[in-house]
Amino acid sequence: MSLEDRKAAARKAAFARRKAAHAARGPGDAGHLSQVLAGYRGVPVSGYMPIRTEIDPMPSMEEAAAHGRVCVPVIEAKGLPLRFARWEPGSEMVEGTFGALVPRDIEWVEPEILIVPLVAFSRRGGRLGYGGGFYDRTLEMLRRSRATLAVGFAFAAQEADDLPLEPTDQPLDLIVTEREVIEV
User: Fold this and answer.
1) How many CB atoms sit inside 10 A of residue 142's CB?
2) Which residues does residue 41 pair with via DSSP β-bridges, in sequence order?
3) What does the alpha-carbon distance between residue 7 and residue 84 come to, in Å, rounded to a whole number?
4) pTM of the complete model
5) Which GO biological process categories is it annotated with (predicted)?
6) What is the pLDDT of residues 162-182, one digit of tens each?
7) CATH of the domain at 84
8) N or C, which end of the chain has less CB nearby within 10 Å?
9) Radius of gyration of the chain from Cα atoms?
């Protein structure tokens, strides 16, 4: 089985686990994420606008916005790193590429902490995303210029022991679930 086939199978299984966790718990409890971000008040942080059955970081993003700049990812084109637009509670949002919401008025921000959505994760910091490579390219670019903290945010049910990873896959520094904070 090819690496792409293994990734597709891992994604399918992880999507099913995430869907079940979302159905059982709703959008999730961001309490642990808020605790992690409280230690970095004032540091620019990127969150994300949750889609489908992703765990919801919005309560933590709202708290962080009271202490510093918060932004959300903007996909400009396939194959490019993400850029980040400033977000505040109540920002007017419009549909961006792939249906993700982005602020209507763009003010670019370079985050130092990225709350990273994912499909599956391992306790060793492995992350399986949607397959576009956007976060991998972005983290690689940001980490070349300065320390950048990648915080995976997911339901505990999205954990997998053995993820099919490539050398270009960027590791997570922390994983936050509704149950715990995992330091890698």
Assistant:
1) 22
2) none
3) 27
4) 0.94
5) folic acid-containing compound biosynthetic process; tetrahydrofolate interconversion
6) 899 999 999 999 999 999 999
7) 3.40.50.10420
8) N
9) 15
